[in-house]
Amino acid sequence: MPPRPPFPFLVVWMLLGTHSPSITAQLAVINTPKNLTESIRNNPACALLELKELIPGIQYDLRYADTNNFVNRAMYPTHTNITFLRRDPARALQKVQAELAASGLGLKIWDAYRPYAVTVAFWELIGDERYVANPAKGSGHNRGLAVDLTVIQLNTGTELPMGTGFDHFSDTAHQDFTQLPEECLQNRQLLKQTMTKHGFLPYAEEWWHFSWPNPQLYEVLNIPFHKIKRKH
To answer: Residue 211 pairs with which residues in a beta bridge?
Structure first.
């Protein structure tokens, strides 16, 4: 089992459609599909694209829609089987998948868009920036700019060995950690090189986490998955 952060496993409640004024006082949060539509009208790059609809062969294992995650709780509705990125990172991820597919490989997505309410819930459970984003700032996931993913064999769906699994809280998961079998190091390097080639930025403490630059250009979103699906 990977190391887990030191906090009690508490019941998580969904806050979608609400926010804490003490946290969001200095942060603009889009809470309705109507406001999202207006944002996209003003800036088409703010459009949210559903990844499976855009990228053939990509696979999902959306960990926060299940209990197989570091809080042992479903943070998304358990029926969630869709996820999103903004237009430009989604199209860049499409290029990553196409490049990997030429070698019989592909991508598995663990998380992408994350409603802001979930970040608030994480913070109320943990409150430690080593493990979760501070909602006072919002996160790349809340903006539809960050993605957690790994590489798989397309013909079997088998994940390539990476040395740790998802949400492994130790230095073993860091991008610069080298005390791993050579196969794992090569696989991590393949993921990193392919993602950065197409514009993504790696996160030093998590080999699986990549984000799109210039987050200040995109609003934080707090809209349920199914409402985005219906509207965009």
So the answer is: 146, 201
> Which helix or strand (DSSP H or E) is residue 207 part of?
strand 206-211
Q: What is the pLDDT of residue 25?
A: 47
Q: Helices 182-197 and 87-101: crossing angle, nearest 10°?
A: 130
Q: Is the pLDDT of residue 144 over 80?
A: yes
Domain boundaries, the chain: 24-231
List, in order, residues 6 or more apart from 204 with CB less than 8 Å away.
Answer: 174, 175, 176
* Arithmetic mean of pLDDT, 45-70: 95
CATH topology of domain 24-231: Muramoyl-pentapeptide Carboxypeptidase; domain 2 (3.30.1380)
- Give the whole-angstrom CA distance, residue 110 versus residue 211: 14
Which pLDDT score is estimated for 231?
Answer: 57
Amino acid at 124: E
pTM of the model: 0.88
Tell me which of 203 and 130 has the higher pLDDT.
203
Alpha-carbon span 46 to 25, nearest angstrom: 23
Q: Locate the DSSP E strands across 26-140.
A: 29-30, 48-50, 59-60, 84-86, 105-111
Q: What b/e sequence results for 19-50 when a residue is b if at least 16 CB atoms lie within 10 Å of its CB, and e otherwise? A: beeebbeeeebbbeeeebeebbeeeeebbbbb
